[in-house]
Amino acid sequence: AAKERGGSTTVEFDESMRDTFRFRDELEKELREAIRARQFLLNFQPIVEAADPNVIVGFEALVRWQHPQRGLVHPADFIPAAESCGLILYLGDWVLEEACAAIARLNACGGRGADRYVSVNVAAHQFLSASFSARVGELIMRKGIDPANLRLEVTEGVAITDAKRTREVLEQIRAWGVKTSLDDFGTGYSSLSYLQQLPFDTLKIDKSFVADLDDKRSQQIVRTIVELARSLDLSVVAEGVEDAMQGELLAALGCDYLQGYHYGRPLAESEAFARL
Ligand code: C2E
Ligand code: MG
Ligand code: MG
Ligand code: MG
């Protein structure tokens, strides 16, 4: 394209960079507007028992952007931008509040809804912000939910940003009675010493290992993660399970819980909760 415009490779690079920035600017403006106009919604994906996948133990809340022109936009296409411009604090707070409201509705269904949890993704910046654990406590009280029915997921990026602060926040959250998961485990840069120091309850094995289970080495990695989790008294969820064979293998390798399209796609709240 640069050649056609008579430019050099450098020009092409510069122009695409400028386009990227313009796009980012535009996206940021739209995100700001979307937060104001409440264009976000949560989907819920079931998490099941590995020993009996008919049993749903909880749901992961996953945000979507109902864009007026572009339709349903997935988090990969806006979370990074929201993180880099700081809007993730507002978006993340909306997600947390909405998830707590959903927990109240889930538990109000009675029966099996009463002891199922909803797991919420929390960005590093949000998790490490000064008011985060107080906000969690406030929402639990205001929505009148059992803290055992709320879970929080963070990635290894949190610990890398500030391990000491991460530990503090994890301890405050644990004091509320809320459990925490380390998400996308195995893909980040965290050293094992973080794991030993940070009081998580659950490891979520990243879906890249699950997708690769035909490879004996991936199986060996899963087995090793499970052993590590056992020795640190953590439970294990495997993500991205797309067929029954993967699920059976992961159960045999010792995973406690499974999540993936095979057991249920992320669904609108009413559809998801109706599956209980
Ligand atoms: P994640 O937390 O690891 O969530 C799991 C992702 O895997 C979801 O993608 C889910 O739809 C997808 N998934 C589930 N089962 C399968 C499967 O069987 N196969 C495959 N290929 N994928 C599967 P989604 O909803 O697009 O979210 C992507 C990421 O965006 C999430 O990864 C999470 O890191 C982030 N995210 C989502 N919602 C929020 C949020 O409310 N706040 C923040 N900060 N991040 C969020
Ligand atoms: Mg997650
Ligand atoms: Mg994950
Ligand atoms: Mg992810």
TrEMBL record:
**Domain EAL: where?**
24-276
Lineage, top-rank taxon, reads Bacteria
**What name does this protein carry?**
GGDEF domain-containing protein
Record lineage: Bacteria, Pseudomonadati, Pseudomonadota, Alphaproteobacteria, Sphingomonadales
